[in-house]
């Protein structure tokens, strides 16, 4: 048996994200869960009791009245995670911050602060913001074009990581006998002048026990994958099938290798939906029940528009061929999901109604069955190197409880999942090395 | 006796701010206090046990090797406060964020998140950033000029407060029976287009139990005072004497009245240093001892330069007349302290050495004596309407303990200070009304 171990993250859907408009109807879920700190603390502690590597907080900064419930009213990720940091001891705390609308100096400070407060458990999910409407909340008429977004992202992360190296590890002497607080020779300004950012530094924060926060990145497009392979410690993705998972896994590791990185130091962690039942049949029944309860066609149509920059599809005839205007948008845009949908609509001659229905199959991998079935399938994906672990979508509270209480022990019996935390920092738990510091 | 009650804040110096370079030598203080979350939690709980209204976190984003120890290595205020929010139940949480280098949408979200996490205890200390070097960490060669800084500040606060009104109080229906999550008619975009900012909104966060965070503002200049009177719920200041305190207090309340505000809804809370001894003489001895231990002339000279934009005064002859170059700087700059120092240097014909020594008297009001003396003097200032309360500088841990254990009970006996928290939010405790919301 390899010592390679499955990693687990908990991605909270709050009261209901995309495709989960009606999650809040579940009476086990506080109806204000997305702004309820007590609920978040409870989820984080449940995940920690099940030895999860991390809790993963997604984000958005733009709403319309049609946005999913969780989007309308949600705590800012890092503010939330700092409260979780002092409410937990082991679990990693990964927050989403966009490189498009945050100053690198502020991002560096906030994440480094979370890293110190949590004693080395912070992670940053680097995004560039997909919703075009976000731009209007930050003084811009339009979002940055695709190349600029990715160019900014790469330089932004480079600046932030540079600021995280402002102080050598032994810079703070704090010797009361000699009155020497720190060694000025071990403080380094950054003096970065790049295409998008200019930051002098140094940062006013020492390094944490894990050296610096762990970098997470998602992105399905060519540029997204290349960025992930270049900068990410962990790549977050969707893997609809074992085979697609394996192909993506191989590709990311190869890209990392080509960039001169150790492929074992770039982990692939797709999102996963889990439905656990007493039997496989009961689990499938549960899945159907939740999906049916969850989604009116009207909501699905509205959300379908999200992949097209919140395009209003209600203006079209549902059973006519897929609208030409939307095809045109997908061709010229950077929305990978829109491209994928329209490719299929064209090749299969789908109507709008059919395309909306088909798009609901573009979900992350679903693990549906008895606890035994789910544990076996997850182990299979892990051992076949389709994944290094899963970011479990936390939707219905009862389902999450079944996962932690029934599936996790079976993963442990199979020898693919830990029985205790191997370390005290997120890097140690994920098996990632501490980044070198200036010497 | 009036029901008007003294307010108390705790302003932490961490391991040592300006004029406190050697605070960290105190063996009672953890030498890494400025990044030690356990220490901050301990201080917040001590202050809460003494029924303080708030803990107040100052900030800076620019360091040089000569910066005071606390500046070199300090947690970002809001990240810190969120951890304190779930570690306390009553005390207000006031964080410093600059309007010069933060997007209003991000400020609105982060403070509203802290306000919800703390169940209505957040406050924002609005600053425009004084250190010219800060600009270099945010892609600018120079800091905004004085008028721009204050223009931005006023518009920034207006945008943030507008975003905090995105949702009416009863917008979230969350009725499971009817499946109705919210009322779209009670969601309002901002559509702000101003001189400095353009923000569409709405904010993706509901209001907190206190309506919106409390606004704090400091600023000694003409523009600073006018801004404070216009936007602040609480004005933070320095009051070197009872008479100066009374004059400032009167002025702020009059300015507020002229701007159409209720003067009782604008509180004046100067910083205060406290030295408590067994007798007045012993307290004065303690003060002398701490000040002497605290400050070499070299450090004082370096810090003196801070009021002149970190001008290097070590290049001048100490006993020659005050340098003409520095006089010129003060004349053309917006540094109130520099102006005050140079006015005095000119009128009294001071040498540089004498000016440095004189500047050390520009400290906040110091309350030095036995617990009885300190309590009597604070009550006197309060009853003479020189202050509505004090922001106590938390330096030496032993001194803070004496203040909470010995002075606070005497203030209670005098009837000027509460025996229990009057409410559950910061606004309630400060006696501030909940701001009206859109209807």
Explain what you see.
The structure is a homodimer of 439-residue chains. Chain A contains 15 helices and eleven strands. With 439 residues, the first copy, chain A, is an alpha/beta fold. The first copy, chain A, has two domains: 7-289 and 364-430, TIM Barrel, CATH 3.20.20.30; 296-359, no CATH class. In chain A, the strands form two sheets. Chain A has an eight-stranded parallel barrel, surrounded by eight helices. In chain A, strands 5-6 form a two-stranded antiparallel sheet. In chain A, helix 3 packs parallel to helix 4 and helix 5 runs parallel beside helix 6 (222-231). The first copy, chain A, starts with 6 loop residues before the first strand and ends in a 9-residue tail after the last helix. Chains A and B meet through helix 2, helix 3, helix 4 and strand 6 of A and helix 2, helix 3, helix 4 and strand 6 of B. Chains A, B: FMN binds at residues 59, 96, 150, 221. Chains A, B: GO terms for molecular function: monooxygenase activity; oxidoreductase activity, acting on paired donors, with incorporation or reduction of molecular oxygen. Chains A, B: InterPro entries: Diverse_substr_monoxygenases, Luciferase-like_dom, Luciferase-like_sf, NTA_MOA. Chains A, B: Keywords: Flavoprotein, FMN, Monooxygenase, Oxidoreductase.
